[in-house]
Specification:
single chain, 128 residues, alpha+beta, five-stranded antiparallel sheet, 5 strands
């Protein structure tokens, strides 16, 4: 059976065959999803940080499509020019992970911008 690191390696290769996973680490703090940070060496030589978000059983019971909705919301908000993570890949095949997951940029936000971003996301989430 493939280990967790191998699964993340598969995911970054699915995004671009030239990608190489440098490291993966668990991001602590979320309760509704497992969030893992990834550091990736792109074929261009650039090193980028991304996250993989995988929802837990409680979220999936309420809404089996929650990852798809979140990914779509990020695409809409990013297209509107808002400071949200760039959505890169929505993994819906369940070939790598047991449920849907998505890959997005790692966004660092200051304490001052968080309330505004959360308010915008909450408002837009209702319209999907």
């Amino acid at each position: 059976m493939i280990n967790e690191y191998g699964k993340f390696e598969q995911l970054v290769k699915k995004l671009d065959q030239g990608n190489k996973l440098i490291r993966a680490w668990e991001l602590i703090g979320g309760i509704s999803a497992q969030v893992t940070g990834l550091e990736i060496l792109q074929s261009s030589g650039r090193i980028v940080k991304m996250i993989v978000r995988q929802h837990g059983d409680n979220d999936l019971k309420r809404n089996p499509n929650i990852a798809a909705y979140e990914h779509k919301l990020l695409m809409i908000l990013k297209a509107a020019g808002l400071p949200v993570p760039m959505p890169y890949n929505f993994e819906q095949s369940c070939e790598i992970f047991p449920s849907h997951a998505y890959l997005s940029s790692l966004l660092r936000v200051s304490q001052n911008s968080r309330p505004q971003i959360l308010m915008i996301i909450s408002y837009n989430w209702q319209s999907i």
